[in-house]
Design brief:
The complex is a heterodimer of chains A (514) and B (117). By secondary structure, chain A is mostly helical. The longest helix of chain A is centred in the middle third of the chain and has 50 residues. A two-stranded antiparallel sheet of chain B has the order 1-2. Chain B contains 4 helices and 2 strands, in the order αααββα. The chains are: A mainly alpha (514), B mainly alpha (117). At the A-B interface, helix 2, helix 5, helix 9, helix 10 and helix 12 of A face helix 1, helix 2, helix 3, strand 2 and helix 4 of B.
């Protein structure tokens, strides 16, 4: 490890600790802890959304996938971006108008039953846990590669950092860590893309012509079909990507950190510009890595292509840029896992403990205390799970998280806001059908069963053909909610009228007078 | 703390307002009509536009024909997805500003207790 890497690495650690120190002094109420008191501006929250969303899997994984598979790697970029149109058009504003701290709060605006909240909390915990294990295992492997330290130590460093931010600084610290990370990440991306273009004489046509000849794939590199050859598999993946984002608890939670629907809207706009620019730039990184690092070297460093971006930094910018990009990758991991801890903790402390066990009869200080204990528990649990999961192929966990989010959370969100007849039974069946169909189908899929030893968890023929089951599980989630609703006679038009007015006008939404 | 209080207020104070009457009011119905007319076609449009890409690349090969030099149509279509996202965002913000005005008007009517219903 070079001294520059160590210095930049420590600088990031120090900066985030300073943020946490100031945030800790401001964190007094449960509202501060979960939603930064609802006081972020649209631009701040937009950057924080980008910081929460653009994981190391996006930064390193997509650059690597484009370097290796050409166009097919770019599919992810497109799906991850268009997803924000779903968020903007259908979810963000009603969610902000109806919710308080968690997704369960929003669904509660229509249905009081505790089983509804319980199911929503279960979904949040499941999605966040899978996402978290994937992030931590990826982080451990990555830091191992970047800094040459042992896996367990790498996981522990990331784990201790994320616990510190959330435990002491709650959402305020988490948001600012995410904002700083988003700015650093974008700066790193722009510098790298600029240097790549410099090498191609700022001629995009020339870039395409050159990458066509540098890879072993030849002209096929610039065409779809190198990675995704199964049409239904491709469509299923694309469906999970575009609908999953609008159901990810750690992203949804970010909309409660602003004062009203209008600010929620402007956050999505900022996030969409930043995220869109980011994904455009992944193309330059991927092509740059293919041209200046080379397929063999990328694969030799990491078979998944995860080292493509750092290796490119080294090739075009020398040790200093390599150190900077490595430090940015580290910051990226920290910002995402902190957001996940917070989402998981809110489901445990606010939904399960505060609202279900204590029936909402908890004082302000008890709420904050519960939130802190829950954060600590979620962190420790995920660190332990990640330590055991080192040798698992965890890539499927992220797509599973997106798939559950799209199948289990999105139907209930849309039905709650837009469907008059929807009722308690429907809300529970929508969430559970989506959750279990996604879980069961994935456990029978090629992600879990593969005839080739080591390619998946178990050796054997997959029973279900799609690696990502969204194409089946998302319709099942919607169907579950529909059938559950019509089988139950319950219907509360008065409550629906109230939800409809509040969702569409922002009347008396929490924090509307900030 | 402020958020907490307002939220509780929202829970109890709203008892007085007859929301069923509000959703039947002319101004609210107009807002819902305008929103639907805007959101539904555009949502269908962007989902269709998005899924066109994997459908065309999976079942056809005509996007593989070169468009500009070595850049084939599939890349231009991919780029168009980004452009579409940004354009729709911009359109949405403009349109939402007019929905905000309508919503403010409805809230005013609600608080005044039924004018214009």
């Amino acid at each position: 490890m070079s001294p520059t890497v160590i210095i930049l690495f420590l600088a990031i650690v120090a900066l985030t600790l300073v943020i946490t120190f100031f945030a800790a002094r401001k964190t007094q109420t449960a509202g501060d802890f979960y939603t930064a008191g609802g006081g972020l501006t649209g631009t701040q929250n937009g950057l924080a959304i980008a910081g929460d969303y653009l994981s190391a899997a996006s930064f390193l994984g997509i650059a690597g996938a484009i370097a290796i598979f050409g166009f097919d790697g770019f599919f992810y970029s497109i799906g991850f971006l268009i997803a924000y149109l779903v968020v903007l058009f259908l979810v963000a504003e009603p969610l902000r108008n109806l919710g308080k701290y968690t997704l369960a709060d929003m669904i509660k605006s229509r249905f009081d039953a505790r089983k509804v909240r319980g199911a929503a909390a279960l979904n949040t915990i499941t999605i966040s846990t899978f996402y978290m294990i994937a992030q931590l295992v990826g982080a451990g492997a990555l830091i191992q590669l970047l800094f040459g330290i042992e896996y367990w130590l790498a996981v522990l460093i990331v784990g201790v950092m994320m616990t510190t931010y959330v435990l002491f600084g709650g959402m305020i610290a988490t948001s600012w860590v995410q904002i700083v990370k988003a700015v650093l990440l974008m700066a790193g991306m722009v510098i790298m893309a600029f240097l790549v273009m410099l090498k191609f004489n700022f001629n995009i046509g020339q870039m395409f012509t050159e990458v066509k000849s540098v890879t072993t794939h030849g002209a096929a590199y610039l065409m779809p079909g190198l990675q995704y050859t199964e049409p239904l598999g491709t469509l299923s993946l694309m469906l999970a990507l575009v609908l999953g984002t609008a159901g990810l608890p750690h992203i949804l939670m970010r909309f409660f950190t602003v004062k009203d629907a209008k600010t929620a809207r402007s956050s999505v706009i900022t996030a969409t510009w930043v995220i869109g620019l980011f994904y455009i730039l992944t193309l330059f990184l991927g092509f740059g890595a293919a041209a200046f690092v080379g397929y063999e070297t990328i694969i030799a460093a990491n078979p998944g292509g995860n080292m493509a971006a750092p290796l490119l930094a080294q090739a075009i910018g020398g040790d200093l840029l390599f150190a900077f990009i490595s430090a940015v990758a580290f910051a990226t991991i920290l910002a995402v896992v902190a957001g996940l801890v917070l989402a998981g903790a809110s489901a445990f402390a606010h939904d399960l403990y505060g609202q279900i066990i204590k029936k909402g009869k908890v004082s302000e200080s008890e709420q904050v205390k519960a939130a802190r204990y829950a954060s600590l528990a979620v962190s420790v649990l995920s660190i332990v799970l990640a330590l055991f999961a080192q040798y698992l192929n965890v890539a499927f966990l992220v797509s599973l998280a997106f798939c559950i989010a799209a199948s289990a959370n999105l139907p209930v969100i849309l039905y709650t806001v837009y469907w008059k007849r929807f009722n308690t039974a429907g809300a529970v069946t929508a969430m559970l059908t989506g959750l279990f169909s996604a879980l069961i189908l994935v456990s029978l899929s090629p992600s879990v069963f593969s005839p080739i030893e080591g390619a998946a968890l178990f050796v054997g023929e997959p029973i279900f053909p799609l690696a990502n089951p969204a194409l089946v599980s998302v319709p099942l989630g919607f169907l579950g909610g529909y059938v559950g609703t019509i089988l139950s006679k319950e219907s509360n038009m008065k409550r629906y009228a109230e939800v409809k007015v509040k969702a569409n006008t922002g009347y008396k939404s929490s924090g509307a007078n900030h | 703390m402020g958020a907490e209080k307002n939220y509780k207020q929202g829970q109890y104070v709203t008892e007085e307002i007859d929301f069923e009457q509000v959703i039947e009011s002319k101004s609210f119905k107009k807002l819902m009509h305008d929103r639907k007319k805007f959101i539904i076609p555009l949502t269908i449009f962007f989902l269709v536009f998005y899924f066109m890409l994997p459908i065309l690349t999976s079942y056809t090969t005509f996007l593989n024909t070169p468009a500009i030099g070595d850049i084939s149509w599939v890349w231009l279509f991919a780029l168009a997805q980004f452009v579409m996202t940004w354009v729709l965002c911009t359109i949405y913000v403009k349109k939402a500003a007019s929905f905000d005005k309508q919503a403010d008007q409805i809230i005013k009517e609600m608080e005044q207790g039924g004018d214009g219903r």
